[in-house]
Amino acid sequence: MRILLLCHSFNSLSQRLFTALRDDGHTLSVELDIADNVTDEAIELFRPEVLIAPFLKRRIAEATWRRLPCLIVHPGPPGDRGPSALDWAVMRSRAHWGVTVLQATAEFDAGPVLAHAGFAMRPGTKASLYRREVTRAAVGAVREALQRLPLPPVEAPPGDDGWQPLMRQADRAIDWRRDDSETILRHLRAADGFPGVAATLFGQPAHLFDAHPAHAATRARADGLGQPGDVIARRGPGVLVRTVDGAVWIGHVRRAPAGLSGPDGLTLKLAATRAFAAECAALPEWPAPLERPADGPEADWDELRYEEFGPAAARVGWLEFAFHNGAMSTRQCERLRDTLRTLRQRPTKLLLLAGGPDFFSNGIHLHDIEAAAPEMGLMPGDCSGDSAADASWRNIHAMDDAALELLTLTDRLTIAVLRGNAGAGGCFLALAADQVWAHAGVVQNPHYKNMGNLYGSEYWTYTLPKRVGAAQAKAITQGRLPIGAAEARRIGLLDAVLGEDAAELEVLAREQALALAASPDLAERIAAKAEQRAADEAAKPLQRYRDEELQRMHRNFYGFDPSYHVARHYFVHRKPHAWTPRHLAMHR
Ligand code: COA
Ligand code: THG
Fold it and tell me: Could you give the domains of the chain?
């Protein structure tokens, strides 16, 4: 079928559907929801048989939904309607939730239901549930809905939720003096990644994000310190806030209204320890041990976590780096690099790099970089050559240093395990490992050009052509399109697709890693890897790849063309697109 995706932005769900439906053999094109006449024009040009709206905030015009079937993907079960579906589900601690594919009619989300799929809820953030459970269910439901076309709509179980209004900050409010940790966590999870919960921190207004429970040891240590609402310690990006019954970690905040403010009057989302740097200076650092279990009494929250398993002769290391939104600031890159250095001492045969549960990595931290730019006036390009360029330069070097640790770890095998999506530099960080494994739902964007024509770094000019060949490397980087797991496997960007989601992948990756670490030819494989690396180094040193890439990046950051600075500004402030990028609007 010819399918037009109409979306507010080409977000993760839209990208997943785009890759899945193309895999199924459909012909896809994308139009961003800019104006009704632009949508009309897209329909004229592309002549789709069906329009799918995976992520749409505006009403589809009557002339459009009368002209062709328009399928709305709603992140709620049949009968549920409204713009804050998942927020309410998390807030109300619903045990099960779902996704509905319905036909657009005059009333929001009230049209005939074509398909729906359910899932068990998990104590994660709204954004995490959206990227994992909702997205997986949506792919299934959309496929089912397409098979039903042009049949009459299916019978759906009558929903009892009905219309739910837009959730307001008043609905999200927390009271440090009254609410227990569970309530605070629930409210913050329902508001994460957007819009956060308006509250106070250090007695100052801020929107809070990225909350995590304090585990047993931390709670014991916090006992008796400060009053509910007081910040008592710091760790990584986050601060520890006392609650009436313990404490919670707050990883990220948007301060208001002082400092650099975006169009919505709030500052950028930054690590709490950065946004409140002055206030945090006096706080004690309460580190968590790097090596610790994921759950149980010894579990604890931090960005990095390491564990080992397997017999002494076939030991496997598992390193997680759960950086919020997969964005890696200079500080985070340095922490990863230092951790990789210490792990060289471990007697492992295999090191698995498991990234975060929602994202593997999205490369350099664009919000952190933007925060280095002075307040920008009418000309966003004015900031080229200022401290945002310096911050970018430092971040790229730190990212390269982390990739280099992997590339030069030649006395064991390394495997990137993609539990979530990867973008830009994050994809090439994965390619610095010997193998890349992912589950079927992982979408990668292994290119840089969408961010103001960045040239790219992370030794991609070494790793990408080596893996996929020069022609395919060119097609990927010029094409700028998201690549699903199946296609990535076909073209050699992935070595294995294990399981349907992150949970299945985690189990299968551990099994396969143990088998690989115990395989009789492992020593041979490691020797071959070291030899290959030495031969590659002799042919062209890694430093030269790095220098050549950085020469181009220097031009992107400091040169005459401000495209990168403009694109970054638009990205971090979520400014709406004025037109659909041409690599997506294929009909144009
Ligand atoms: N730096 C800072 N923040 C980033 C980021 C980065 N590199 N990549 C993603 N994010 C943030 C987004 O701002 C957004 O923030 P929010 O929680 O406030 O909403 C969140 O992560 C999710 O991003 P979003 O674009 O909504 O997710 P998605 O899954 O729909 O799309 C990408 C994923 C990778 C296509 C998109 O995030 C992207 O283009 N990222 C930039 C990649 C890049 O150019 N990196 C720099 C070059 S190395
Ligand atoms: N029929 C038609 N068009 C549609 C839908 C439909 N467009 C997309 C829409 N479904 C997806 N669902 C919703 C449901 C409610 C709202 C938006 C999208 C909504 N919006 C508020 C408004 O427009 O005033 C504002 C919400 C906000 O600010 O985020 O209530 O079924 N034809």
Answer: 2-156 (3.40.50.170), 169-280 (3.10.25.10), 304-572 (3.90.226.10)
